[in-house]
């Protein structure tokens, strides 16, 4: 091995050069982005030790405290925390805080939550009840308030600890948070919202309002996704509702156990800069919204592809659309979404955020206004495959198996890998989520059913289908007998 080589750093540099047009994370860039000005050549001298007097510590309010107060005011929080390990860390903190607030209670969780929420159950040792989101055409949207009310009723004697939802979805579907907050609060439960994809919400009159201002009690925000900070930086916001006082202390405790003692101050500074840009940059956000609207208009008028979010208002649980995410139905235009994404990247150097077999999702940073001419031209030059127009023949989503153990007990139990056929009736040790739509089909601790195995294998066998968490679709990790 040649220790003079730096393959990772070289690959990054090559990628950055060869893919200048990106409609994907992270959401920074664009003319006048203050991050570039701020870090530039000075990055090394700004990379300081943690807990510096005059920055993080010392006479109060410290600059860190002032920054946090500004962030809380910008999002409408009682208090905000900066995080250096993503919204994943935010979800871990939220779940730990809820477990501290309501020991032994079960979280009522949207089944399509991010894996970090399930991972948090390994930390808390608690259990969860799940509520299915609306799933249409391979896309998981949000929860409907009446379904949450029914699930609360069905919990009967079980003690619940919170309602935990995700909004916006990967496709930009914003749930009716006010209605969800009302249902949760009527049952005496705090509402936790994973708003990872919505750091920018509420910062322009044309954007949906953020979850905190609609009554959420704890909000996880992946600021780096569309909010403009550096990758891995995120925030947690506490609302003003009836649980705020008790939750605040729990969040402080929880944060201290999943926080590095050397959080990168570069990441924290990027949060400060992103907050400033969002809170003072309505005009720039307006430019980004204008470009996104123009892309939608040109796709519609091209007559070949569809804008999936045009249909969102009639989806149950609808609260709004994030206009900076543009889900494009490529299947109606005769090309599978995965193939479209691959061709755009490989032949045109244009990267979009994600694909399903039905389409692609392009996204815009809240304050960047990139040229869309190349994307529009490349889209309409995509080859047509009449077979792709057919509806995908995915089997229906399988019902979830009964929970036999908590996620934590299953995770730590001795386990073994068995052939998928032999896994029926056994208890899963890992979660598996078939894409699309990426909803965990089985969680650690749940019983594996024949229906589940058939579904997961059908998705794995489909072109571009894949199963997250599987060692291989032919085998499964189960709790040892
Ligand atoms: C809904 C949701 N929550 C949380 C996360 C985790 O965010 P991060 O990558 O900032 O840890 C993601 C990541 O994609 C996500 O989609």
What tags apply to this protein structure?
single chain, 481 residues, alpha/beta, Aspartate Aminotransferase, domain 2, Aspartate Aminotransferase, domain 1, Ornithine Decarboxylase, Chain A, domain 4, 3 domains, seven-stranded mixed sheet, 16 helices, 22 strands, globular, binds pyridoxal-5'-phosphate
Commentary on this structure:
- The protein is α/β, with parallel strands linked by helices and 481 residues long.
- The protein has helices at 7-18, 34-39, 43-46, 63-75, 86-101, 115-124, 145-154, 177-186, 223-226, 244-257, 265-280, 282-302, 337-348, 373-380, 407-412, 450-461, and strands spanning 21-23, 79-83, 106-110, 128-131, 135-136, 139-140, 160-166, 173-175, 191-194, 218-221, 234-238, 306-307, 318-321, 325-329, 350-352, 354-355, 359-363, 415-419, 432-435, 440-442, 466-468, 475-479.
- A 7-stranded mixed β-sheet has the order 2-11-10-9-7-3-4, sandwiched between helices. Strands 12-14-17-16 form a 4-stranded antiparallel β-sheet. The chain has a 3-stranded antiparallel β-sheet with strand order 20-19-21, covered by helices on one side.
- Helix 4 (63-75) packs across helix 11 (265-280), helix 5 (86-101) crosses helix 6 (115-124) and helix 7 (145-154) runs parallel beside helix 8.
- The model has no long low-confidence stretch (mean pLDDT 90).
- The structure holds pyridoxal-5'-phosphate.
- Pyridoxal-5'-phosphate is lined by residues 86-88, 91, 114, 116, 166, 194, 196, 222, 234.
């Amino acid at each position: 091995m040649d220790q003079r080589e730096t393959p990772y750093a070289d690959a990054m540099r090559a990628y950055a050069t060869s893919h200048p047009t990106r409609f994907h994370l992270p959401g920074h860039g664009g003319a006048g982005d203050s991050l570039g000005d701020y870090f530039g050549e000075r990055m090394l001298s700004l990379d300081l030790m943690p807990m510096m007097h005059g920055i993080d510590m010392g006479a109060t309010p410290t600059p860190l405290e002032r920054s946090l107060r500004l962030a809380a005011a910008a999002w409408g929080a009682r208090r905000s925390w900066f995080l250096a390990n993503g919204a994943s860390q935010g979800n871990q903190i939220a779940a730990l805080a809820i477990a501290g607030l309501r020991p032994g209670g079960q979280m009522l969780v949207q089944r399509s939550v991010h894996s970090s929420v399930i991972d948090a159950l390994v930390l808390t040792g608690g259990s969860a009840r799940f509520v299915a989101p609306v799933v249409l055409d391979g896309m998981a949207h949000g929860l409907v308030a009446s379904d949450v009310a029914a699930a609360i009723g069905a919990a009967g004697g079980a003690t619940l600890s919170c309602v935990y939802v995700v909004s916006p979805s990967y496709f930009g579907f914003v749930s009716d948070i006010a209605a969800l907050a009302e249902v949760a609060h009527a049952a005496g439960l705090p509402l936790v919202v994973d708003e990872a994809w919505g750091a920018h919400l509420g910062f322009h009159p044309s954007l949906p309002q953020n979850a905190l201002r609609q009554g959420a009690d704890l909000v996880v925000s992946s600021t780096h996704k569309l909010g403009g900070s550096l990758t891995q930086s995120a925030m947690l916001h506490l609302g003003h509702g009836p649980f705020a006082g008790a939750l605040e202390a729990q969040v402080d405790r929880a944060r201290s156990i999943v926080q590095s003692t050397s959080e990168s101050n570069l990441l924290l500074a990027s949060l400060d800069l992103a907050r400033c840009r969002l809170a003072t940059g309505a005009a720039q956000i307006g430019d980004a919204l204008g470009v996104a609207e123009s892309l939608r208009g040109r796709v519609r008028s091209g007559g070949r592809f569809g804008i999936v979010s045009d249909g969102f208002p009639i989806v149950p649980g609808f609260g709004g659309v994030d206009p900076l995410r543009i889900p494009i139905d490529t299947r109606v235009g005769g090309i599978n979404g995965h193939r479209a994404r691959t061709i755009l990247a490989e032949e045109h150097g244009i990267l979009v955020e994600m694909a399903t077999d039905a389409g692609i999702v392009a996204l815009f940073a809240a304050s960047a206004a990139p040229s869309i001419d190349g994307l529009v031209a490349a889209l309409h030059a995509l080859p047509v495959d009449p077979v792709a127009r057919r509806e995908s023949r995915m089997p229906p989503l399988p019902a979830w198996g009964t929970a036999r153990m908590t996620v934590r007990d299953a995770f730590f139990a001795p386990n073994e890998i068995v052939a998928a056929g032999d896994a029926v009736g056994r208890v899963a040790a890992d979660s598996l989520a078939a894409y699309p739509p990426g909803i965990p089909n089985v969680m650690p601790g749940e019983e594996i059913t024949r229906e589940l195995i058939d579904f997961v294998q059908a998705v794995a066998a489909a072109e571009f289908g894949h199963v997250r968490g599987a060692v291989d679709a032919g085998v499964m990790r189960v709790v040892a007998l």
